[in-house]
Amino acid sequence: MNQDYIQPNEWSILEEGFDVERVKSSESLFSIGNGVMGQRANFEENYSGPSFQGSYIGGVYYPDKTKVGWWKNGYPEYFAKVLNAPNWIGVNVFINDEALDLFTCKKVEDFKRELNMKEGFHRRSFIATLPNEIEISVKATRFLSIVEDELGAIDFEIEVLNSDAEVRFEPYLDGGITNTDANWEERFWKTLEVKSEGNKGFVLSKTLKTEFHVNTYMQSEVLLNAEKQDVDFTETKTADSLTFSYSIKAEKGQKVSLRKYAGYVTDMNHKRSDLVEAASKVLDYATKAGFSKLLQDQKEAWEKIWEMADITIEGDVKAQQGIRFNIFQLNQTYLGKDERLNIGPKGFTGEKYGGSTYWDTEAYCIPFYMATKDQQVARNLLTYRYNHLDKAIENAEKLGFTNGAALYPMVTMNGEESHNEWEITFEEIHRNGAMVYAIYNYVRYTGDFDYIPEKGLEVMIAIARFWQQRVNFSEHRNKYVMLGVTGPNEYENNVHNNWYTNYLAKWCIEYCLETIEKVKEAYAEDYKRVMGKTRLNEGEMAKWREVAENMYFPYSEKHEVFLQQDGFLDKEIVPIADLDKSQRPINQKWSWDRILRSCYIKQADVLQGFYFFEDHFSKKELEKHFDYYEPITVHESSLSPCVHSIQAALLGRTKQAYEFYLRTSRLDLDDYNKEVEQGCHITSMAGTWMSIVEGFGGMRVKDDQLSFNPTIPEDWKTYSFKVNFRDQILKVKVSADKTVFYLEGDNAIEINVNGKAVELQPNQELEV
Amino acid sequence: MNQDYIQPNEWSILEEGFDVERVKSSESLFSIGNGVMGQRANFEENYSGPSFQGSYIGGVYYPDKTKVGWWKNGYPEYFAKVLNAPNWIGVNVFINDEALDLFTCKKVEDFKRELNMKEGFHRRSFIATLPNEIEISVKATRFLSIVEDELGAIDFEIEVLNSDAEVRFEPYLDGGITNTDANWEERFWKTLEVKSEGNKGFVLSKTLKTEFHVNTYMQSEVLLNAEKQDVDFTETKTADSLTFSYSIKAEKGQKVSLRKYAGYVTDMNHKRSDLVEAASKVLDYATKAGFSKLLQDQKEAWEKIWEMADITIEGDVKAQQGIRFNIFQLNQTYLGKDERLNIGPKGFTGEKYGGSTYWDTEAYCIPFYMATKDQQVARNLLTYRYNHLDKAIENAEKLGFTNGAALYPMVTMNGEESHNEWEITFEEIHRNGAMVYAIYNYVRYTGDFDYIPEKGLEVMIAIARFWQQRVNFSEHRNKYVMLGVTGPNEYENNVHNNWYTNYLAKWCIEYCLETIEKVKEAYAEDYKRVMGKTRLNEGEMAKWREVAENMYFPYSEKHEVFLQQDGFLDKEIVPIADLDKSQRPINQKWSWDRILRSCYIKQADVLQGFYFFEDHFSKKELEKHFDYYEPITVHESSLSPCVHSIQAALLGRTKQAYEFYLRTSRLDLDDYNKEVEQGCHITSMAGTWMSIVEGFGGMRVKDDQLSFNPTIPEDWKTYSFKVNFRDQILKVKVSADKTVFYLEGDNAIEINVNGKAVELQPNQELEV
After folding, report:
1. Is A257 a domain residue?
2. Where does substrate bind (chains A, B) (predicted)?
3. Is the pTM of this model over 0.90?
4. Is the dihedral of CA A6, A10, A13, A19 positive or negative?
């Protein structure tokens, strides 16, 4: 744990006391989003202290020219990244002409922040003494509407405590923003027009190169003691910005507030020529409803989300707060309404990793969205990749593959590869397998096999082709080998025969062949279309089969474990427990070569394979592998502890599972990795959810049936979760002595609990 | 071959006809240098076409901030590179106010360039028709004096052919230059003062960060029909530049010329406060001597160099031109007078590779300098590394090594690592072995064992320490293994047990232990000092021995060859001959991952080891290894063909040896690698020399004796070379039927020819 200033609370993230050192961390933790746009919890008023400004629009990206020390053939020309968008939250505040700036105030007292996860808003309150000795009490509330997802709203309320004063609010829009994560310090935006219509303001901008057109807009109201006031205003325009200025006299003890409605409309959803009109409509909707009604709607909308997605934990407030924070942030990042969007590793909380799509989505996020949303949401995530198939084929062609083989990118916004580090970009190809695994996982869970003939099969064929071309036959071993890859454990680069990758490749081919048979039988039309389009023939499939049947897997007879890769036994194996603490985290303390030749594992690699293909192995085999690899795993990826938590639970090691759970669920709140200032680890939050549902709850799907194997950590009284399984909602509540199941819906279903079949009647509790 | 415009000639590099497409290539090929400074063959007068401006001062460097896509722990903060220095060659020319600019002339005829290697100058002549229809004949001669190495001289002669005209010469100095190879497009120089004293001009500059102070200076004379004229001049100063303007009327058919003396004096050799005075002295020396005398001195000085270093080839003009070009460029780059200087891979002909020091010096250049210069020159090269020992220890510490272990940098100017690509910087550690091999090679050749107790041993101990710490014990193999390295074949990264590196490591330790014994016996004083300083004890040496005795070497029983690295047999082995030509060079056609997993070898790796340690293996073993690796070697490093040429000659495959020789000797002249515009491959030129002396000549040193085993390529009538062996000069002339030896000096020596001992009497020919 690296910080512990977040107050434990079941439903809110709370901070008390103002500390400039914590501003950037809190800007990440208190981020808000609505699945379409999101922003760091920057202050509305000017703040001259250290801060990391960020406001992001899902799907709006910029191709930043690649920066690289030594160019390698095949590197992409640019890195497509989500970019800091024009600022609409700004409200500068002056009291008797003195600017409010928490960095320069004489005193800041009673500073509180709340991220209200239940109702979906961010609130900040404090009492500040300005340099001119005026003391004010401030309460600023802000949210991004999930009902009207182009809209945000701010209520900035001030009470002057020690005298009468003139309060001046200056709400503004600013298109002249910069990106922290810019390779060449270039500007990414061009402001096209700064425009006002009455008290409506608009800044029309476009991203350079990609030409996304965005209209950032605002409209404000001034209130005195909660009564709307008719206040004159002036406006100031610059090339990039628009500021309205509202002045109002407040007597001591009176409350004045500015309500600002603002947001973005983009040409992803509107015609370019309609952007002002579209924004104006949203503003009319907002001002008509008013702040309170909008907030009420927000609360109700979040209630609905929580109704389905909530996990309760009794007896452990920090664990409860942790899991809700994870669920809340996931929902802020992606709500599954738009198949063009995806889940960036930092969501809308920072710029690291370019805000782009990684294999995290397929490997970690799909289960959460499948179980807590309508199954269309997961289908949209699959379709996102289906829509990128042509680009994935182009990407493979750039690397010398042929015949429609596809390599999905490591990092992408638009389907093209953005990453430029050869050992990742060209070699961390296991990501391709995750695309297929996600399809398999989706069909297993939802039963929606139709997706495969419709879309999935084309992806699967292109990926099977890739694997077959990517291996080569080793005469020496009389097997197919896969040279030069990087597994999920990125602390090994350019290894040969990474077990996970080889296993996944073999499985992808076999699953594809098996699926082709099914489609052939049951979807003749689709079969014909796909086979025609892909020109797949028996000869090629025979080659695939040959590879799958003769794939090489490194194995140690002595340890009875599959080896992470060739040569693993040449390493010096020293358990992490024996490594001096001063050496950790090794990614900060050791040079890269030392990390590479050490035995230490960044994240589950062989065990990731055992997680994906649990039913291919016995529990005893799992145990052997867990005991071999876990002691040398440093979990320096946020994606690692969850898999270990689930496997420890399966092995009956509840205490260890709980330790891994804690590490994943409060990773950001307690800033385990000393980097929360850069943003939150959004995608791994889905792993936290899995730790509970699949880990402690032991939920699995097999043969169209749910099964459970519940355990509970010692400190917990109960925990509960809900899953949507094929349009029926199942609530599971676990305590030490029993598990209670409650099924919503119309039909009885059979589930399996601790190995025994159990029939659940709808709308009826069942205790096991 | 990619270009063939260079005219064959035994003593000169010649170009005929003006082609804007060839300008950058010729700027590289016609580069001049004097071991202290050097420059690309840029035109003196303004040229508005594509050009790559470069003028370099040995040892003056700039630490350019590292540019990297994804930072890895251990990367250096900057890349120290030789930088483009202020321009002193500039002479703008106006005829009746019309600027001479070959890019905009109406006509350019009879364009000729000559790099006169015998006499050491560059000359360019042409007839140009200016836009104003005036036709002029120009002859511009330039050289950098190797007699007075701070001085350069230009004679720019013009004859107006079709009318009388006013000729205006504007010689200038310009400190406002930029670097083509700048990571962040920053300026590297600050101009401190622009100053004139009469017709002497000075631009005082310093490099930013490193604060090298450089005074760039000039003085000019105007001549009419070879008579010095007293011409008035005006001067123009800007913040960075100084221009003198001389106008003279020339009648049709008269020759006017400007003679410019110019160059650099730096605070590497003078007090900062004396830089103007020092420059002024050089100018007085130059103007007093005059251009013709300076050129005569130059010719004589080069005669002396050629007297010792020349290799003649009768019957093959292109081969003759090639070898002389190599010898000439090596001498232009490094003359061995200053132990602070070294041999950059591009010398003074370009900016690629930072102009810095690589292992090329130790592995490839030392033999040339040992044999063609006084042995002090090679000693200076060794001392250069000795002086960097502390930095090499710091460098190793950064990577986690302790106890005085040293890792010499991959790329350096001042002893610190500059390179930033983990697979090279941290892993291409065989370079450390080359440092020790160079000491061994030097002592073997010169007999100067004193160097070891004096300096070499400390380096050897620090490197032995590194190897012992760098390996780890593999229980699995019951041997020491070396994980995560890159061998000389950079088309493999992060491999395990690279045979060459392991072999070199073992040898370094053994040679160090053996040497310590010798020093202990014969240099008691030094022994005590070194052991005290390094705190080396028996216990540590026992550990070294343990490692050396139990080092693992990958070997294939089936092929009876040492394997380049672990897992090499898993590759698909397809001889280069079977690879479609359209796929080559693979470094331009293939993505990096494909190169890595292919079997193709960039440059000699196992064979490099066989070259270094030829007497450790039988000829039969060499043959096996040569036949295994050569067919899959693509020679995409300039350092590769020479080793193969030597080994092919040793195996009696003279024809193949000749093919490799051609490839190395005319690499730049014929632009085999399509990159000569960036500069010449200086360090590999020493390999060309080895191809003849060690390859065809079969020269070796063993037990303080020279041996020869001459062969001759079919097309050659004779070839001859000279070597300085322990202060006696031996000339060897080989023809198909005999070899003639001629020994200069006072004492008879015994040599070995074709396996038989032969006694050579001084100053007497001996035919074998």
Report:
1. yes
2. 359-360, 602-603
3. yes
4. negative
- Are A476 and B70 inside 8 Å of each other by CB? no
Query: CA A39, CA A682: separation in Å to the nearest integer?
Result: 14
Record the tokens describing residue B134, joined without a space.
């005036």
Provide the domain count of chain A: 1
For residue B516, the one-letter residue type is I
Which of B 474-503 lie inside 8 A of A, CB atoms? 474-477, 481, 483-484, 493-494, 496-497
CB contact under 8 A, A593 and B422: yes
Nearest-neighbour CA in chain A from B483: distance (Å): 6
Q: Which of B113, B117, B114 is nearest to B146 (CA)?
A: B117
Pairing of strands A705-708, A749-753: parallel
Contact flag B400-A591 (C-beta cutoff 8 Å): yes
Q: Is residue B412 in some structural domain?
A: no
- The interface predicted TM-score (ipTM) is 0.92
A582 touches chain B (CB under 8 A): no
- What's the pLDDT tens digit per position in B548-581? 999 999 999 999 999 999 999 999 999 999 999 9
- Most B CBs within 10 A among A591, A595, A598, hence the mutation to make, goes to A591
A81/B351 Cα distance (integer angstroms): 33
Instruction: Report the pLDDT value the prediction gives residue A675, as an integer from 0 to 100.
Output: 87
Separation between Cα atoms, residue A28 and residue A41, nearest integer Å: 7
What letter represents residue A164's amino acid? D
- pLDDT per position as a tens digit, A500-518: 999 999 999 999 999 999 9
User: Which residues constitute the domain of residue A111?
Assistant: 99-307
The tokens for B523 are 């240099």
Cα separation, B758 vs B764, whole angstroms: 13
Residues of B belonging to the active site = 490
- The catalytically annotated residue of A159, A362, A490, A677 is A490
> Any idea what the CATH number is for the domain that residue B131 is in?
2.70.98.40
Q: What is the pLDDT of residues A530-587, one digit of tens each?
A: 999 999 999 999 999 999 999 999 999 999 999 999 999 999 999 999 999 999 999 9
d(CA A164, CA A138): 15
Whether residue A300 lies inside any domain: the answer is yes
> Environment class of residue B230 by beta-carbon count within 10 Å: exposed (0-12), middle (13-18) or buried (19+)?
exposed
| Measured CA distances, B70 to A7, A63, A69, B420 (Å) | 35, 17, 9, 10
- Identify whether A629 is part of a domain: no
A498: tokens are 């990474």
Q: How far apart are CA B364 and CA B684, in angstroms?
A: 7
